[in-house]
Every structure is written in C-alpha cells, then in structure tokens.
Design brief:
Layout (H helix, E strand, L loop, with lengths): L1 H16 L5 H37 L3
Keywords: Cell membrane, Membrane, Protein transport, Translocation, Transmembrane, Transmembrane helix, Transport
Organism: Candidatus Avelusimicrobium gallicola
Membrane topology: Single-pass membrane protein
C-alpha cells in the first residue's frame, strides 16, 4: 500500500513540474485538428469516390 501512495505522490509532484498549455493554445490546437481532420476526410472521400467509379467502369458495372 505504501508503494501505491508513494507512486501517487510522485505522480502529483511530476504533474506540478509540467507546463500546461493556455486556454487559447488549447482552443487553437483543437480548431487546427478539426480543420486537418475535415481536409483529410474530404481527400479520402474524393479518392474513394474516384476509385469506385474507375473500378465500376473496369468491372463493367454502371
């Protein structure tokens, strides 16, 4: 039990040493991630649509 308590105390001590992002930095990072996810999903959707059409043409579908 003492090892667990020591571990938790050390963990809290290490977290206090950390530098945390400001609220503005977190918001900016979140917006950037959302934009990148949207762009990548649009890119993958376009490639998927194109490959589906090409494969349909090759196989003789629609």
């Amino acid at each position: 039990m003492n090892k667990a308590i020591d571990f938790l105390k050390q963990s809290v001590g290490e977290l206090k040493k950390s530098t945390w992002l400001s609220r503005q930095e977190v918001v900016q990072s979140t917006i950037l991630v959302a934009i990148v996810v949207a762009l990548v999903s649009a890119y993958v959707s376009v490639i998927d649509f194109g490959l589906t059409k090409v494969l349909g043409f090759v196989v003789g579908g629609r």
